[in-house]
Design brief:
Strand order of the largest sheet: 2-3-4-5
Largest sheet: 4 strands, antiparallel
Order of helices and strands: EEEHEEE
Length: 98
């Protein structure tokens, strides 16, 4: 089991890596990674983040801002993802059981 405590003063991208072998073989938890980063296949850019300005509940649910990633031989795969409504100045605890 892997545990980590995280405190957000600002909602930015964060990564927790575990079972790291090298740059092409590891597991990670990606927090607040924007969909238009590396793996967006549509080529369309989305503006803003659900925590910025007004947004509908549907948009928030569609943007999975916490993802469990497995990268093997350089090929990333999303194992599981979900939406979490983060609050700044709050402690969060991650527990990863593998």
């Amino acid at each position: 089991m892997f545990k980590a405590n995280v405190f957000f003063e600002v909602l930015k991208e964060a990564y927790l890596m575990f079972r790291y072998y090298d740059d092409n073989n590891f597991y990670s938890v990606e927090v607040n990674k924007k969909e238009d980063d590396d793996d967006d296949e549509s080529g369309e850019e989305e503006e803003g983040h659900p925590n910025e300005g007004e947004s509908s509940g549907e948009d928030e649910e569609e943007e999975n801002n916490i993802r469990l990633i497995k990268k093997v031989y350089g090929n990333p795969e999303v194992i599981q993802s979900t939406y979490v409504e983060w609050k700044i100045n709050t402690w969060y605890r991650f527990a990863i059981v593998y």
